[in-house]
Design goal:
The chain folds into two domains: 41 residues, no CATH class; 86 residues, no CATH class. Helices cover 15% and strands 43% of the residues. Strand 2 and strand 3 form a beta hairpin. It starts with 9 loop residues before the first strand and ends with a helix.
C-alpha cells in the first residue's frame, strides 16, 4: 500500500469530502483535495486478479474470463468483484457478462443487453458457461 501513497502520506475518504492527513505526524494538513485529486488518488487503489482463463473451443468459440477482487465494495459493485466474461467467434461477441463502472451487473446476448442478478461468483461463471453452451 505504501507504494502508491501520495507524498504527504495518505488520503482518507470520508463520504464526498477527502481530507489530506500526514500519517507520520498524524497531523491534519487542513486542506480538502479538489475533485481532480480524488480521482487521481482512486486510480491507485488496485484490484487483485483472482481468475483469468482464455481458451478457444473446438467449435471456434473463444472464451475470455477475467475476474478481479476490488479493494472495497462500490455502489454499483456491492459484492466487491469486477468481472468480464466474454465469448465470441471471429471477433464478434456472442455472450458477455460484465459490470463496467456505472452500469452494474449485466449481460449481453448478441446485440441485446439485459440486467444480470448477482447470486455469487460460482453462479456467475456457471450462468455464463450455460449461456455459451446454449449457443450450440
Amino acid at each position: 500500500m505504501r507504494d502508491f501513497l501520495p507524498p504527504f502520506g495518505a488520503v482518507f475518504f470520508c463520504g464526498s469530502e477527502v481530507t489530506a492527513f500526514h500519517v507520520s505526524r498524524k497531523k491534519q494538513l487542513g486542506e480538502a483535495l479538489p475533485e481532480s485529486n480524488i480521482l487521481r488518488s482512486m486510480q491507485y487503489m488496485k484490484a487483485t486478479l483472482i481468475y483469468r482463463k482464455t481458451e478457444t473451443r473446438a467449435d471456434g468459440v473463444k472464451l475470455d474470463m477475467v475476474i478481479w477482487q476490488l479493494p472495497s465494495e462500490t455502489a454499483d459493485r456491492s459484492h466487491g468483484i469486477k468481472y468480464r466474461l466474454w465469448a465470441g467467434r471471429a471477433g464478434k461477441t456472442l455472450v458477455r457478462y460484465d459490470n463496467e463502472a456505472g452500469k452494474g451487473d449485466h449481460k449481453h446476448v448478441g446485440a441485446v443487453e439485459m440486467p444480470y442478478v448477482w447470486r455469487g461468483l460460482e453462479w456467475l461463471v456457471a450462468d455464463f458457461v450455460a449461456e455459451v453452451e446454449a449457443l450450440k
